[in-house]
Amino acid sequence: MPDPVSKARRPIWLVSLAAFENVVGVILFGLLVAVVLLGVFVRFFLYRWTHMAWGDEIARALLLWTSLWGAAIVQREDRHIVIELLSDRFSRRGQRLLRIVSDVLVTAFLLVLVWNGWSIFRDSFVRQAPASGLPTAIFDGALWITCLLMVLHTLKS
Question: Rounded to the nearest 5°, which phi and psi values hold at 71?
Fold first, then answer.
């Protein structure tokens, strides 16, 4: 876990990025709750007069974005779940080496996702989601953008 002293020495762009990520995370989660509650209200109380076909689609996209955005924030804070059974058996130097190897593997995997996901993300702007008519980038963009953020956060640590 990062210590408070190192947080004070972070560049202003990293502090601004962290604040931006936090605000976007709260907005995404708030929108998710609002759309789901609206869908429940419409489904149970207004079902005779109106339908909200787009609600499930938007809620699914918001769930995807919220989950992956949260993963990027957790990556930034270095708070992912860690199984310490193996790493505790190593010396300090061995733990550091294990951490470096782990970060290299995570970064490589994320870069593969970014590289292969670019064409899917780019093409998703021309395909439409069936219920809302929005570009399917509302789904496909989540993985590509959050993987880029996670690469940045892994490299800075």
Answer: -65, -40
Against a cut of 0.90, is the pTM above it?
no
Token pair of 61, please?
């996209």
- The pLDDT score that the predictor gives to residue 5 is 47
User: Which of 60-69, 77-86, 89-98, 118-127 reaches the highest mean pLDDT?
Assistant: 60-69
2: how many CB neighbours lie within 10 A of its CB? 12
Span 97-123, pLDDT tens digits: 998 999 999 999 999 999 999 999 999
The angle, 0 to 180 degrees and rounded to 10, between the axes of the packed helices 53-77 and 12-45 is 150
Rounded to whole angstroms, how far apart are CA atoms 50 and 123?
33
DSSP assignment of 109-146: HHHHHHHHHHHHHHHTTTSB-TTT--BTHHHHHHHHHH
Phi/psi-derived region of residue 2, left when phi > 0, alpha when psi is between -120 and 50, beta in every other case: beta
